[in-house]
Structures are given as C-alpha cells and as structure tokens.
Amino acid sequence: xxxxxxxxxxxxxxxxxxxxxxxxxxxxxxxxxxxxxxxxxxxxxxxxxxxxxxxxxxxxxxxxxxxxxxxxxxxxxxxxxxxxxxxxxxxxxxxxxxxxxxxxxxxxxxxxxxxxxxxxxxxxxxxxxxxxxxxxxxxxxxxxxxxxxxxxxxxxxxxxxxxxxxxxxxxxxxxxxxxxxxxxxxxxxxxxxxxxxxxxxxxxxxxxxxxxxxxxxxxxxxxxxxxxxxxxxxxxxxxxxxxxxxxxxxxxxxxxxxxxxxxxxxxxxxxxxxxxxxxxxxxxxxxxxxxxxxxxxxxxxxxxxxxxxxxxxxxxxxxxxxxxxxxxxxxxxxxxxxxxxxxxxxxxx
Length: 349
Hints:
The protein is mainly α. Helices cover 35% and strands 2% of the residues. It contains 13 helices and four strands. Helix 2 packs antiparallel against helix 6 (155-165), helix 2 (52-63) packs across helix 7 and helix 9 (205-217) crosses helix 12 (316-326). Residues 1-25 have low confidence and may be disordered.
C-alpha cells in the first residue's frame, strides 16, 4: 500500500509539473472565492479564514501518512487528485494493514458549500471530517491525541504550525489547516462552467440535448451548479439493507433506511466506481440502473416510482447524450492544479 501511494504521488507530480496555478483576481492563489454560478458557501470562514501558511500546513498533513497508526496511510491514499480526489483503485476504502472499509471513498471537491458530510451525513461540519478517517479502525486506526504528539515531536511540523498559527501543534489547528486545504478545492472550471457563465465555450448539439434531458430527468436530485441538492435518498439499489442501512444509522429513523447522500456529479467522468458501495464501474451501468434496474423498497424515493414500474425511462440515445453532457462537467484545471498536488518540497516522513 505504501509503495503504491509513493508511486502515485511521484506520477502525480510529473503529470502536473507544467500546470498553471489558479489565481484569484487579486493575484493570490490562497483566497477563497465563490464561483459566479455557485450558491453561497456554508463553511464558517469567520472562524477559520484561509491563509497561505494554514493552507500549506493542511496540504502537508493531507499527504502525510503520519496521521495513521503505522504511517502507511495518508488522506491522499483514498483521495487522489487525478480522480478529483476520489479513489480510482478501490471499490471500498482501504486502510492500515490493508483493512477494507464498508463504503466507497467520495470525491473531495467544493467542500465549502456542503452542510453534511459522508454518505450518511454523520458529520455536520468540515472541521470534523478528518476525525472519522483518523480514528476509524479500518482507515487510519489512530488516536487524535497521539497524532498531535507525533506532530509536536516533528521539528518540521513545529515550524509549520508556528508559521501558520504562532503556536505548537494542536488538534484544533490541525483540523483547521486540513479544512483550509479542502476549502480551496473548488472545482468550477469545466466546459459546462465556461458555457453557462458565457466565457466563450460552446456545447455540441448532443451535449445540449444531454443537458436538456438531464434537467428534465435528473436535476430533481442533482440540483444547482453543485449538481447535488445535498439530500439523502433511496435510489433503488437494494430491497433490504442489513449490510448498510445508510442515513438510518445516524438518525435512527426507519424512514431513513437505505438512504444515502446524493453525490455531486462534478468530475463524475473521473470518480468511478459509483454509488456508496462502488458497485458500478461505468456511467453506462449507472444509467442502466435508473432505466431498468431500480428495486422497490419501503423507502424508495418517490421520484423513482411510476404507475407502470420503477425508475427513469431512458432510451439508448438519451443515455448516450446524458453521458456526453456529464463529461462536460470534467474540470481539467482542478485535477492539474499545483496547489493541491503532492508537496514534494515539504513532505515529512
């Protein structure tokens, strides 16, 4: 696992070596700015404004396996830039000692606009998201207090925390720094974005047909230019949920059984496998599911219930056009942005 991680980051550095850094209108690449076609951010920036030093500390932590119990797993193992910070290798997340998780690792993008996190919405603030991975027995299997102890013994991190916060390493500032790094992971420069913002981009006839079909058949859940409404829904994958009951695990409400968070479709071309358990490898399989594979259950979303059956009627041509449109949501600038890449010059073992 560690060998694969190091190989990945080396390849990633080579791939993005020629990419340009994203810079805001004031000339700083470390200022959060809301894209014109996005809703307002949900993150509490008044408590944790992004700074260059805070961001760079978060970047170092994100790529450093020091956060895991045996120093083999970093955040970047399951969240790889080339895949919009999803995991293109594993169906289910993999942790220390090659332990298997129970769900697919979601993409990390546009986190500042989210209010609930993970497939079941079990975390309500971005600052607390890393705690789940760090303390999970099947992911990093570490204790927050021990991570802080390791950081306090590391001269490089003592310097980085002092530069960012003028104090020694602490759990709060560690989490703040990781949030600063993730908050700048804004993906909003796809062909679709340039088209909708009238920035000189055009879509083909098939892509526009796909957009029209998407708007009429998919946008009830994948809403706004975030391409998610942030809700939790049962999309007809299973009839029973003994293996994973989804949102019900958090709310303890029977009405939430089998419901999972609606994922954003930004960069969806890159973020396979799909669904909370990674059961589908291709977009074609996803649309086939909605067209003919929806399974009924007590909490199945009403959108998927029809008088003549279940699902969303789609012809072969309609599915092909929708996929062409979805590929216009791929943001090449995001996956090549050097700000988010492996920090070769500051990585600490």
